[in-house]
Design goal:
Blueprint: H1 13-16, H2 23-31, H3 34-44, E1 79-85, H4 89-102, E2 108-114, E3 132-135, H5 142-150, E4 157-161, E5 165-167, H6 173-181, E6 185-193, E7 199-201, E8 204-206, E9 212-214, E10 230-231, E11 239-243, H7 244-250, H8 263-273, E12 277-288, H9 305-324, H10 332-335, E13 344-349, H11 359-374, E14 377-382, H12 391-397, E15 401-403, H13 406-419, E16 425-429, H14 431-444, E17 448-452, H15 457-468, H16 471-490, E18 493-496, H17 499-508, E19 514-516, H18 524-530, E20 541-544, H19 550-570, E21 576-579, H20 585-588, E22 595-599, H21 603-612, E23 615-618, H22 628-635, E24 640-642, H23 644-647, H24 653-656, E25 658-659, H25 663-675, H26 677-694, H27 697-707
Parallel strand pairs: 1-2, 1-4, 2-3, 6-12, 13-14, 13-16, 14-15, 16-17, 17-18, 18-19, 20-21, 20-23, 21-22, 23-24, 24-25
Antiparallel strand pairs: 4-11, 5-12, 6-7, 6-11, 8-9, 10-12
Helix pairs in contact: 11-27, 14-16, 15-16, 19-25
Length: about 700
């Protein structure tokens, strides 16, 4: 067996990544032999080395075929992979082998539509078993060959795959997952790359005159702008997935584009006309050996129809092209993801949200999801510019472009200057992040500026000083207070999660727009589903909080030292479960004698803890803002004992929470609520209605629409 691999042994990022360099280095970048530049890049950026994922191109000789090309048969395949072929036997075989090796456990069938081959393709059944081979009696041409093959497909989804493609590992499931989670997606296409690792296309653009543009062609395929889910004008037909029901409704490829070319572009326009989306799925990567079957010369052969069919396409879709499309690459920012009619938001935070690790990140991901649902075009800038996985991919699969990597780290100002005119709103989180970016953005864009402070940092530091007596916290409070007030003065509107903090700020700066927004966003069905705790079947008390946050360390230490012993006098066998990321040694040492330190829990594990435990405690002695841990407990219907600091900013807190500030009073509250089923049940019943009223998606949507109008 002869297998050809391009001579690259690591991620092509090492070859093409636009690292920050001076002019001489930039010149050397383009002049150096690739392998030498690879070594130079790895030496300069060893911390950026990532696992190899270079595309595989496997070319097998006719005389040495794998003897196990026995495709699995599924009774009810979900996907029908249709491969139109005309000779080029070795190319077709390579394609089949790649499907066999890289398609995972998605139920699929393979249909090879042979349009009159005269080479070894005629004997395909002797090399690959359990595939459907449709042998046309006469040559139908590419378009009609595809239309005819669909008649033999049994899957819910059709994939049209050129025979000059080599599908890559994990290529199929992302396409299926996309279709399954969004029923408005009509067509989904793969990222196409050349065998040498360069990008061929990250979605196609159609200009106003009907000509096509392969976005990203010949660039490095791992750049952030090519790796987020997005709507596009069309997907090249080398690898596209279509809903079979929609295909039948449309009637397949339009025969006016016989025998080939522009039929895939026309299909995309037809699908949009029927109310569906055309989407680029970057997680599905396919190597396309462009030109291997039809050549590249548009002056003769089948390729010549590319020119004549463009004219037919323009005639058919002229009205749409004139009203919805553009001319000129200066509009790339808006046309590459069909966002010309959308409002663009630049969302800036410290890093991509680690939504399963801290309340602030959980709030951030919920607001990002809401903005996507509302129809904003989101660009996310994390101040560390690191591609944190799986969190970055989660955002990208939501349709959010994440700006990460060395180029953005050093040249984000260049990006702002170039694209600032397209940014309608800038949403800045946290004071130290807003302080870094605010001045430059204000100078170089006309964007409306929204600041989400999360909480008042100066108030938290002041309260820490009052608890611990360390003057450095008082100095820190005064310093950050100046920063926070300066930000409020410079932005157009400020958001805080705590009504208490919003009121305090309004007193100090009455002439500025300050609003309270929900920290977490729920819908009624979610609340009713989550609030499933039960007094009789629950036991133990739970604390939830990440330990990168100093108030949480203090809270657990105070509770274990001064409160828990008082509780154990009356409830000797009670357990205190502490769940949170990165517990420091002083917290880990508290384990034992009824104290259980779990460390980080997954969302599923945390949900189970809420359902198992009778009470949640939040013994916070200092802090600021609404405490996400308390809102989360309320959403699960679990009564909570906390302090006035913990309850601060929560409307109707006195109706929903047990509140005490001193050790004995706190212990008495826990004991009373833990042992009294009537008190527990009466409190638990109130929690869902409070969450629905004050922490709903609808409430947040109204505020965003007020300050960030969509039209």
């Amino acid at each position: 067996m002869k297998i050809k691999f391009p001579f690259l042994f690591t991620n092509p990022a090492s070859l093409f990544h636009p690292i920050r360099t001076d002019n001489l280095s930039r010149l050397l970048f383009y002049l150096m032999p690739r392998r030498f530049f690879l070594m130079f890049d790895l030496l300069k950026h060893p911390d950026k080395l990532r696992p190899a994922n270079h595309p595989k191109e496997a070319l097998y000789s006719v005389n040495n075929i794998p003897d196990n090309l026995n495709f699995r048969q599924y009774e009810n395949p979900l996907v029908s992979i249709i491969i139109p072929v005309l000779n080029h036997w070795e190319t077709t075989l390579s394609c089949l082998i790649s499907i066999f090796e890289n398609s995972g456990n998605v139920p699929y069938e393979v249909i090879v539509a042979d349009d009159g081959s005269s080479d070894e393709t005629l004997n395909l059944a002797s090399y690959a078993s359990n595939i459907k081979i449709i042998a046309n009696k006469t040559n139908l041409g590419f378009l009609m060959n595809c239309n005819n093959a669909v008649r033999h497909a049994t899957g819910c989804y059709l994939i049209f795959l050129n025979n000059d493609t080599i599908v890559q590992p994990y290529w199929l499931k992302p396409l299926v997952d996309l279709m399954e989670r969004d029923n408005r997606v009509g067509i989904a296409g793969s990222k196409l790359v050349y065998p040498d690792g360069r990008l061929q296309e990250a979605g196609g653009i159609i200009w106003q005159d009907g000509t096509g543009f392969n976005y990203g062609r010949l660039d490095f395929p791992d750049r952030p702008e090519y790796n987020y889910l997005k709507e596009v004008d069309y997907i090249s037909g080398a690898s596209i997935m279509v809903r079979k029901s929609l295909w039948l409704e449309i009637g397949g490829f339009d025969k006016r584009f016989l025998p080939a070319y522009y039929e895939d572009t026309d299909l995309a326009f037809e699908i949009r006309k029927h109310g569906y989306k055309v989407v680029y799925q970057p997680l599905s990567m396919v190597v396309h050996l462009e030109g291997r079957t039809h050549g590249r010369d548009v002056n003769g052969g089948l390729k010549a129809y590319q020119v004549s069919n463009q004219a037919k396409f323009f005639t058919k879709w002229q009205k749409t092209l004139v009203s919805e499309h553009f001319n000129g690459t200066d509009k790339i920012f808006k046309v590459r993801d069909r966002s010309a009619k959308k409002k663009t938001v630049l969302f800036i935070d410290r890093h991509v949200p680690f939504f399963d690790q801290d309340a602030g990140s959980k709030s951030t991901i919920q607001y990002l999801q809401l903005m996507v649902e509302m129809g904003y075009n989101i660009k996310f800038l994390g101040d560390d510019f690191i591609n944190h996985e799986p969190y970055t991919s989660d955002l990208q699969q939501m349709g959010i472009e994440v700006l990460y990597g060395q180029w953005y780290k050093y040249d984000w100002k260049e990006w702002i200057v170039k694209n600032g005119k397209y940014i309608d709103y800038v949403y800045l989180c946290r004071p130290h992040i807003a302080q870094k970016y605010l001045g430059f953005i204000k100078k170089h864009t006309s964007s409306k500026l929204i600041y989400c402070g999360h909480d008042l940092n100066y108030l938290r530091e002041l309260r820490r000083y009052m608890v611990e007596g360390n003057k450095s916290f008082l100095d820190a409070s005064k310093k950050i207070e100046k920063v926070e007030l300066d930000i409020v003065h410079k932005v157009d509107v400020s958001y805080f999660f705590s009504d208490f903090e919003s009121i305090e700020l309004i007193k100090r700066v009455p002439d500025y727009t300050i609003r309270t927004i929900p920290i977490f966003l729920f819908d009624e069905r979610e609340i009713d589903r989550k609030a499933s705790s039960d007094f009789e079947s629950s036991a133990g008390i739970l604390f939830v909080g990440g330990f990168d946050h100093a108030p949480n360390i203090d809270a657990v230490q105070w509770f274990v030292k001064d409160i828990f012993p008082l509780i154990k006098i009356k409830i000797p066998d009670i357990e205190f479960i502490v769940a949170g990321t990165r517990p420091p040694p002083e917290i880990v040492r508290l384990s034992g004698n009824g104290v259980v330190i779990t460390g980080r829990l997954s969302d599923e594990e945390l949900q189970l803890q809420y359902q198992m435990r009778r009470l949640v405690v939040a013994p916070l002695r200092y802090g600021a803002g609404v405490k996400g841990k308390i809102i989360e407990a309320m959403s699960y219907g679990v009564p909570t004992v906390t302090t006035h600091i913990g309850a601060e900013g929560i409307i109707d807190a006195n109706k929903a929470l047990f509140i005490a500030d001193e050790p004995q009073g706190f212990a008495d509250m826990v004991t009373r609520a833990y042992n009294n089923s009537d008190l527990w049940n009466n409190t638990a019943k109130k929690l869902p209605s409070i969450i629905k009223r004050y922490f709903s998606k609808d409430a947040a949507r109204e505020i965003l629409a007020l300050d960030m109008p969509l039209d």
